[in-house]
Amino acid sequence: MRILGIDPGTATVGWGIIDIAGGKTISVAFGHISTSKEHSPEKRLAEIAHDLTAIVKKYQPGEAAIEELFFFKNQKTVIAVAQARGCIVLTLDQLCVNISGYTPLEVKQALTNYGRADKTQVQLMVKAILKLKSIPKPDDVADALAIALCHASRRKMESVRNGQ
């Protein structure tokens, strides 16, 4: 199973692709989509959709996991991130990729067994699980890989629960 993890944003969208095969979890590729503050919001969303389409076509993930929105103090930020998330979900749906959403608490719980783990703890787990030489940067990339790993963990638990 190939899973695409996504950490949505307007300026930076983190993404990471993992493969689950034979009980092993392997990092395939990861990176980020950056958009310029100079561009209009519409242009930035179009750029995210365009770049995400290229990533999906290149790596052919069977499923995608995306971070759910959580409480934001800045209303302007939450609206922009919600628009980016909506753009990402629509793009994935149009490309026929199954989508699951996870809250930051669920991601932390899946990787560290502690829902209040800090960012560094999660990043160290991403590095360890995927046997990476260093923590991926920017943080959005490590977060995207964490989201993909969370989805892989959830899939494994559901298959055990269903007796598969």
SSE topology sketch:
Elements: E1 2-7, E2 12-21, E3 24-34, H1 41-59, E4 63-67, H2 75-94, E5 98-102, H3 104-112, H4 119-129, H5 139-161
Parallel strand pairs: 1-4, 4-5
Antiparallel strand pairs: 1-2, 2-3
Helix pairs in contact: 1-2, 3-5, 4-5
Percent of residues in beta strands? 15-25%
Secondary-structure element string: EEEHEHEHHH
The geometry reads as: globular
For this structure, what is the CATH class?
Answer: Alpha Beta
| Distance from first to last alpha carbon | 15 Å
User: The CATH topology, please?
Assistant: Nucleotidyltransferase, domain 5
pLDDT < 50 runs, ≥5 residues? none
- CATH architectural grouping: 2-Layer Sandwich
General description of the model:
By secondary structure, the protein is an alpha/beta fold. It has a single domain, classed as Nucleotidyltransferase, domain 5 (2-Layer Sandwich), CATH 3.30.420. It is 50% helix and 23% strand. The chain is built from 5 helices and 5 strands, in the order E-E-E-H-E-H-E-H-H-H. Strands 3-2-1-4-5 form a 5-stranded mixed beta sheet. The longest helix has 23 residues. 38% of the residues are buried.
Give me some keywords for this one.
single chain; alpha/beta; 164 residues; 5-stranded mixed beta sheet; Nucleotidyltransferase, domain 5
Task: Offer a quick outline of the entry.
The protein is an alpha/beta fold and 164 residues long. The protein is built from five helices and five strands.
